Amino acid sequence: MNINAVTRRTGLFLTSAIFLAGCTVGPRYQPDRMKPPAKFTEDDHAATPEEIEETNKELKQWWHLFKDPELDKLVDKAITGNYNLQVAGQRIMAERAIRDVQASQWYPQVDTQASAGNVRYSINIDNWPLRPGTAAGSANQPQAAYLGYGFSASWQIDVFGRIRRSVEAENRAVEESIEDRRAVMVMMLSELAGDYMMLRDQQLRLEIANNNIHVAQDAYDLTNRLYLEGVGNTMQIAQAKAELDSQTAAREPLKTHISQITHAIDVLMGQMPGTSELELKVVRPLPPVPEFPSTLPSMVIANRPDIRKAERTYAEATARIGVAVAQLYPNFTIPLNFNPNASALYQVFQMGGMSWQFLMMASLPLMHGGKYTSQIRMAQAAAEASRLAYRQSVLNGFKEVEDAMAAWHDDEEHTELLAKAAEDSSLASERARKLYAAGLVGFLEVLTTERTTLNAQNAEAMARLERLQDAINLYTALGAGWQGIALTNTTLPVSLEKQNILARAFQQ
After folding, report:
1. In degrees, to the nearest 5, what angle opens at C-alpha 379 toward C-alphas 89 and 388?
2. What is the pTM of this model?
3. Fold annotation for 31-116+166-329+382-483
4. Contact 75, 189 (CB under 8 A)
């Protein structure tokens, strides 16, 4: 057959295959749009577009709303130093590398090789061909020098989009890893802010405990003085001493908890526990509660990383259906081999030493016992499960927001009432001590009012902490905090480009 005719047919076949490469099988991804409600059931305020725009800006760095410079500084350190966040960033880069591995199938795969040396064969074989010039019966040494070099290449023509669908799926996997990092960011910010509020709460309760120890000490001294004056008795002295010991003992767990919280904050910032202990133990008041944010239900779907990840998981699963469907169609490959061989260096470049192969190969699955159709059904089921999981993520997201809003509204009045109760109890305790000093009431009344005051003060402090945690929970439920924070990168000590000079030239 004429070599030119073969070349023309091969070129025509290759051209046709390349034109067919635009045919990508499998379903196209269509987002499963869930319509959010017109407004939250727990939000009666009709926000204006200007208020919502302002809220969107504020929620990007919601920790600033607490107006606490110390908290702002801790957040900045945690964003740059938190190891979980850095690990999540490395997983993004790993997923991108996996995506690039899949994309490499679009390009020809080329390798080269070379060999040289002596080849000696066994002579214990009948009718072994004698070397030229060797007489029969003489020593036969079937050996020769060998030189060879060449290269091989293979190019897979993606006619039906198997590679394209694989790259599409890996692109979605990259997006999922990005959302994973954003989720780590949201939870890290929530944990850090929650720990900080708990630290300030424990410091406040420690201050309350110290004040109550001081009051108990005064009551004990007063009881002793009255006894010496002939007014009191030893039972009252014992009661006063027991109260003083009880108040002193209640202070110690607070000190332990404060140390543990500072250690947790250090770990969130990526530093050894105890690094910031002296700095964090400086007593500061609880921050004020921010104003209730003006929000829209659509913010939940737009911002929450778990919902965004679920949507991308569904998109990835849809692309995997196309990968499975493409297995039913022909697979086209162009192999190319060029391998000159000779026994001497000057012969390597002669026409007689040339050896090459250029083909167009196609394979089509015929009978595999239903393997490929089963893989398609499996991919379809996985995609449908991902779609349903996305819908469940949306429902869970709205539930968390509604719960956080309800807690915010309900705890506001609760805190105000407890603050009034603490104020009234403190006034009652002060009056009871004065009446006891005047001999108008017994010491039991003093103990009762003091314990009531302590409980009221601690309840108020806890309620203030819950109000601050309500705000943190709402910001977290809305998926705020990751916007505008860039991916943290780290550099490994080994650079692949420095290990192999070819890596710089050919992007291996």
Report:
1. 75
2. 0.80
3. Outer membrane efflux proteins (OEP) (1.20.1600)
4. yes
